[in-house]
């Protein structure tokens, strides 16, 4: 069986990304891909995913997979949105929050 070609992408800081294309033996895992790029798979500040879906480091890879090594979320996006909406109120958030004075609602 041929080697697997896997793309590994990471973002150490905001607006900074690095990408590697690595060749791995058949049966390789996310851990193997991260190790091939010199990344620490045991770092708790990061989380692995394959094509945007959360994956454990023991997950077996397929040819042409994309492994993302991203900083873990500090706050759940749904919770953050609810809190932001609660603090702004219904007038300051949403699709029609910036309408002209005197305009009909929904325009």
From TrEMBL:
Region of interest (Disordered), ranges: 84-107
Signal peptide location: none
Annotated Pfam families: Ub-RnfH
Listed SUPFAM superfamilies: MoaD/ThiS (SSF54285)
Composition bias, Basic residues: 97-107
Classification via InterPro entries: Mopterin_synth/thiamin_S_b, RnfH, RnfH_sf
Similarity remark: Belongs to the UPF0125 (RnfH) family.
Protein name: RnfH family protein
Biological classification of the source: Bacteria, Pseudomonadati, Pseudomonadota, Betaproteobacteria, Burkholderiales
